[in-house]
Amino acid sequence: MSATNAQWMSELPPKLWDIPLHHLSIPGSHDTMTYCLNKKSPISQNQSKLLQVLNKVIPCITRPVVLKWSTTQALNINEQLDAGIRYFDLRIAHMIDGSEKNLHFVHLIYTTALVEDTLTDISEWLQNHPKEVVILACRNFEGMTNELHQYLVTCIKNIFGKTLCPRGELLTLKQLWRHGYRVIVSYEDEFTVHRHKELWPGIPYWWGNKVKTDDLICYLESMKESGRPDELFVAGINLTENFQYVLAHPSASLKKMTLPNLPYLNAWVRKQCPGPGTKCTNIIAGDFIGSDSFVSDVIALNQKLLID
């Protein structure tokens, strides 16, 4: 894993500094925090009752299976930032038996990392990379009460302070730098968003829910045909297992399913073009982002904006 993309935004050609963020090509990580899932964690409350029963009856079998199909990233948050990731898919939850104010991340099971600690890590990294801008997509909110939403927003404001970009017109890099804005927080809870000007509405995510690469690419192409949103949005190149696939491949994992398909997915990535056109892409998010040239390929798409 290389840190050569750690300052890619500030290293873009100056002509691109005047292009709105939703017309640039930005690399993202799908289910960002799954590198630190807790082997001893309970199964998420949102999962099926069957899975929760199996976890109680035969945890020695259920837990390892769930873990290997829940893990979508190998790099930690600082390594992802160094690699050039600028969109982070943060699934936030409060465990039923968890302490009152400890919020975790979740994907089938919960993480060891706490939300407040992770946001602090991101803030500290940004202090050392003054021209990089990150997009934090806060989602899921399993087990969250209004009080916990208020607690989370207070944490976000305290940690990022004046670097939070208030919602409104999407700015260019040059405008963001001028105002000192470094962080865009999208928040998939409308009631909370309306109460806080620092929060942006949820960012659309094109999730194909496909096992096969060809099917996923067909889905993404069909979404492009329908036209891109005139806002930040994500095209997810992440494959998704289903119950039948897991049963048919007992020794497999999400990583074993994903890695052989990355060359085909990245071939699709390299054909994309950012910009305002209806078939243009913006944020592209993937799994196991340090395994190949994915991040560099997404960043390189910005060069197409220089062609008149």
Looking at the structure, the CATH topology is TIM Barrel
Number of individual domains: 1
| CATH architecture verdict | Alpha-Beta Barrel
- Estimated share of beta-strand residues: 5-15%
Overall average residue pLDDT: 93
Shape: globular
Low-confidence stretches: none
Radius of gyration: 19 Å
CATH class type: Alpha Beta
CATH level-four homologous superfamily name: Phosphatidylinositol (PI) phosphodiesterase
Features:
single chain; 308 residues; alpha/beta; TIM Barrel; PLCXD1/2/3; PLipase_C_PInositol-sp_X_dom
Summarize the structure.
The chain has 308 residues and is an alpha/beta fold. It is 36% helix and 15% strand. It comes from Vombatus ursinus (Common wombat).
Describe this protein's structure:
The mean pLDDT is 93. The chain contains twelve helices and ten strands. The chain has 308 residues and is an alpha/beta fold. It has one domain: TIM Barrel (Alpha-Beta Barrel), CATH 3.20.20. α1 packs across α2, α4 runs parallel beside α5 and α11 runs parallel beside α12. β3 and β4 form a beta hairpin.
